[in-house]
Amino acid sequence: MAKIKKEDITKTEVTETKAKVAKKTAEPVTEKESIDTTADAKLAKAGKRSAKTAKEAVEKEAKEVKKTQTAKSKKVEVAKPKQNPHVKKYSKNQKAGKALIEPGKMYGLKEAVDLLFKVSKVKFDASAELHVALHIDPRQADQMVRTSTSLPYGTGKSIRVAVIATDELAAAAKKAGADLVDSEALIKDITKEKFDFDVLIATPDKMAEVGKLAKVLGPKGLMPSPKNGTVTADPAKSVEEFKKGKVEIKNDANGIIHVAFGKLSFKPEDLYANAKAVVKAISSAKPAGVKGVFINSMFISSSMSPSIRLDNNEAIKEAKEAKEAKVTKEPKIK
Q1: For a surface tag, which of 136, 141, 266, 315 has the fewest beta carbons within 10 Å of its beta carbon?
Q2: Where are the beta strands (DSSP E) in 122-252?
Q3: Which residue among 187, 216, 243 closes a domain?
Q4: Could you give the number of structural domains in the chain?
């Protein structure tokens, strides 16, 4: 029988010990062992605190950790409620007005204006509006539309006009009907974003001062421009035009023009004359950067009424045949 040497026993014990350590290291530490280890560490640092109090604190912390781990392991996805598709709801009056418009039909300008009085069912003096979708890219400077036109029978509302000019020209503008002519006071109010006017007119020599207010006036659509007649050497004349019914026409960020051209308290023929003036001005304001079709569609409507689609070619033809009406007296403001 072979003798077992002492050295061989020592080597065997070392090998077995290493295997046990490796196995223990590979095994995951149980939650209880983790808590016990933490508890021992807490007890070591507890100092004068009792063992019971320290152990309770450790157990409480362990529960919080377990709760957090459970929440992370269970990723519960909350189902979002399905949104119902947007459905346009019409009132009884709107439904009654909509029933008078023939589906799919495109109306001539005169026919549409006459129909506008029938489809409007509101009890107040509604505004008549023209909405024109243009085939332009509003981001391009050479495709922007900005012009103005005088409505033969006015807008039907009082327009507040402010003028920034030298003392002599400001006095003449005041005599012509301007509401605000104190340049210094106006500039201070605009800086404080106080706007007590609908139209701002400035003379060329004052544009250096007005230009500093562009960030305030621009977003409000009140920045003077030579294109719409609000930068002029004769502010008194511009004041008279705006007071009698001159309107600014420009596209918005979506390439659409919105213009109010009167009130339903007007006579149908007067409202028709105003509509022709607006359509004529828009059709003549095609920018040089636009090629091909300029006007995509045109609609007219009044406050809270369904819209009536116009036949583009027919409406433009009617507008071009219109003669410029001359009004001897200022229209009555209601």
Answers
A1: 141
A2: 127-134, 146-150, 161-164, 199-202, 246-250
A3: 243
A4: 2
